[in-house]
Predict the structure.
Amino acid sequence: MEDTLIELRNLVKIYDTGAVKVLGLNQINLKIKRGEFVAIMGQSGSGKSTLMNILGCLDKPSLGNYFLDGEDVAAMDPNTLNKVRNQKIGFVFQSFNLISRMSALKNVEIPMIYAHIRSQKQRSERAAMLLEKVGLSGRIHHQPNEMSGGQRQRVAIARALANEPPLILADEPTGNLDTASSIEIMEMFSALHKAGATVVVVTHEENIAAYTDRMLRFSDGKLISDIKNENPTPVRDLAIFEGMYRGGNHAS
Amino acid sequence: MLLENMKMALSSLRANKLRSILTMLGIIIGIGSVISIVSIGDTMRKMFSDLYKNVGVTQAAIMINPYMDQEEIRDSDFFTMDELYKMKEVFGNRLDYVDNMSSGSIDIKNGLNRLKTNIEGVDSPYQKLQPVQILNGRYISANDVEERRAVILISESTALKLYGTVNATGKHFRSDIMGENREFSIIGVYRKDISPIQKLLMGSNDKNGEGIVPWTLFSPESSEFSMIRYYGKTGMSEQEMKQLNTEIKAYFSKIKNRQPSDWYISSIQDEMKQVDGVMGGISAAVGGIAAISLLVGGIGIMNIMLVSVTERTREIGIRKALGASTGDILVQFLTESALLSALGGLIGVLLAMGLVSLGATAFGLSVVIRPGIILVAVLFSAIVGIFFGIYPANKAAKEDPIVALRYE
């Protein structure tokens, strides 16, 4: 298996607003290995959201290459990109982005529905299993508005894991949460990382980035620093996702 | 996946119950009115055809072409009794009945009670073709006809009006008929079952009495008349009846030195076809107008689907981020609009069936609802839903996930 999960080569994103052209990302070169736990940091306007959109295959770069799991995503058409999002990426958003009139279970099933591979029974069994892993076994039939922010974000994590994607992409996952819930969520990402998932967290908060092993700082669309974090914030040793990512390592 | 889409569509329709019902109303009214009108049309057609069946589908009458110039009509164009009997002999094996379709009116007096009574002249086998229910007494006999007896059957209401009882058999009265003053005896009282709507259409006059007499009472041996009425054998096909009509025309052309085209045959079959054509035309025209309300209903669906797409922009963004293709989103919204419309159609057709049955029952008619119409209506409204759902669904499918995810 290829060791590199993400590789960006001279990646450029230009926003053409008509009157002016804005350089969103300026020649980014970057490699993220399988199993890494990475924070993408920067103030608003630094280009981190743009990068997040491109990494998530929601947007395409103007120039350059983006290899995800060995495939050049930059060259793909929108109807292939949706399959990449479905199979390779698990999203966790700041505002949870659960569908409000559906139960937790149904929300977790959505990526599996679009994968068209599992039967209804298999889907709901897997969704229930994932919700159990994130500690929501008693709430699988609750609707998002019947849950706390932390619980909602845990549903979102379960949903992100639905198709067992190699990349977990979290955009300010603790932005709408209180401190206790934030810790809970970051512990879960750590546990995922330990189980072998590649986790990329976009954040502007130092204490959140401190949970990760590697911090990438952006400013004005440029990657200005790439630092290895020797002392990640210690967490309870959660083994909740153990065995989920086969061939997972314990890179530290 | 289709099942999954149906479930999703149902849940989103349930989430906005009132809105869904109001939107469906357009389709309900549209489908409801189309189905009602078509069913009313069919019911009317059935009613007319039943009406003609009562008259006898093999009934026809021959006469000299009524559109012919007055000067061209000769004395010999009228029929005589001899000719009528001759014709009966010649075509006897294919005829059930022949007479000269005579009718008139007489005054019946019972003390101070006096009633103008419309009478119809018939031959004895007429009871088989156009049965009436004999309440008491008997029907006209062959001897009554042959001997031109002054006998009469009167209707139930006539008996009640004149004698205050239905048991009027055996009563006598004197009256003028064909210039003769004769002593009539009442040989029976009958009842004719007709539906209220039939009564309405036939314009039966309740004021006058009704009676049946031997047809020969109107026709002394020397009499001449303008038409001969006949019934082909019961169960004759349309084709056989046509053939018989042609032959009868040819027969009279020969003996009266005329062209076959100089004769006119009025047949129930032709009339039925005409009425059927007219009714069909009316149904189609009114149905077309009703179909416009379907169009309006469809636009209502399009409108609400557009609102729904806008409201659910964020949901669309989420679904796309999670891997939904443009096609998945398109199908999701199309399923929703199709389901919305099909449900409306189903309710509409059931409502229409209920109303039509209710109305028909009130008028004493048997309802005609074409089998399979529920399926057709539901499918058709689903198609309307899909057609009007295409634009909103396409709009949803084309949403940019980044923009949609940020939508508040």
